[in-house]
Design goal:
By secondary structure, this protein is of the alpha/beta class. The chain is built from ten helices and ten strands. Helices cover about 40% and strands about 15% of the residues. Strands 1-2-3-5-7-10 form a six-stranded mixed beta sheet, sandwiched between helices. Strands 4-6-8-9 form a four-stranded mixed beta sheet. Helix 1 links the parallel strand 2 and strand 3. Helix 3 packs across helix 4 and helix 7 packs antiparallel against helix 8. It is globular and about 55 Å long.
């Protein structure tokens, strides 16, 4: 993949890079389509164990691109193709862990895309904000839901209703980010975490854990419903080859060699 998005896969980690550095990686429909396709491809590729999303240059994504003749906020056409959530599947809908290495400014859709990841590492000195209400439109990419889940309803209201910007330290303090680091350390840290997952985490375990985590929120499961699903999913993996390998690798002080493959063995979680 090239153009607005580049994809590199190495040692189990897919690095997806928003690639319009001359425009601070301002979002375009083409970028969204490429990211959606890359997410699907990575989720179906057994060689990909974790995904890192970052931006080229000094920004992650400065928001919607206003450089063209038409504004991205012009009235949509009558063909029914407009969506306020253009990234499909969203990062939280994948089976692989997704880490957003937010290496610089992330404004508007730049931040709402990152909010869909499982983990976010942000640059301390960059600016962040869901500013759409200051542009006469609304927050997008399901951010009314993701932000409230990651933080609290009060924090989400503060960020979404004011459209204010804030720095990396505040992002971490509010729970918007998992960690704030100097900008030049953000990608390296995210890749370190992703490589650790790729080597040491069983792919089926990660997929089941991630889906149960997000599905519990999506379906609003009660604690005992989660307990029932945890039991069912344990029964899928206990006594299996990867469970035996995980224990053996731990006892033998070596890296595990997990053999389960999502492409041939995955079945969706049951709904309660």
């Amino acid at each position: 993949m090239s153009g607005d998005l580049t994809v590199e896969i190495d040692s189990g980690v897919a690095l997806l890079t928003l690639n319009r550095p001359d425009r601070l990686n301002a979002y375009t429909a083409e970028m969204g389509a490429l990211l959606s396709r890359a997410y699907r491809d990575c989720d179906e590729d057994d060689d990909v164990r974790a995904i890192v999303l970052t931006g080229a240059g000094r920004a992650f994504c400065a928001g919607a691109d206003f450089s063209g003749d038409a504004s991205p906020f012009d009235a949509p056409g009558d063909d029914g193709t407009f969506s306020a959530s253009p990234i499909s599947p969203a990062a939280f809908e994948l089976r692989k862990p997704v880490i957003a290495a937010v290496n610089g400014h992330a404004i508007g859709i730049g931040l709402t895309i990152a909010l869909q990841a499982d983990l976010r590492v942000v640059a301390e000195d960059a600016k962040y904000g869901v500013v759409q209400v200051r542009r006469g439109v609304l927050p997008d990419c399901m951010s009314h839901w993701t932000l409230a889940q990651l933080t609290t309803l009060g924090v989400a209201a503060d960020i979404l209703l004011t459209g204010r910007t804030f720095g990396g330290a505040e992002a971490a303090a509010l729970g918007v980010a998992s960690r704030a680091l100097p900008a030049d350390q953000v990608l390296d840290h995210a890749l370190t975490v992703a490589r650790d997952i790729a080597v040491n985490v069983a792919p089926m375990s990660a997929a089941l854990c991630k889906r149960l985590l997000w599905d519990s929120v999506i379906h609003r499961y009660a604690p005992r419903q989660v307990a029932a699903l945890e039991t069912l999913l344990h029964e899928r993996v206990m006594g299996g080859a990867d469970a035996a390998e995980g224990v053996a690798a731990f006892l033998e002080h070596r890296s595990p060699n997990f053999t389960a493959r999502l492409s041939r063995e995955w079945t969706p979680l049951p709904e309660l």
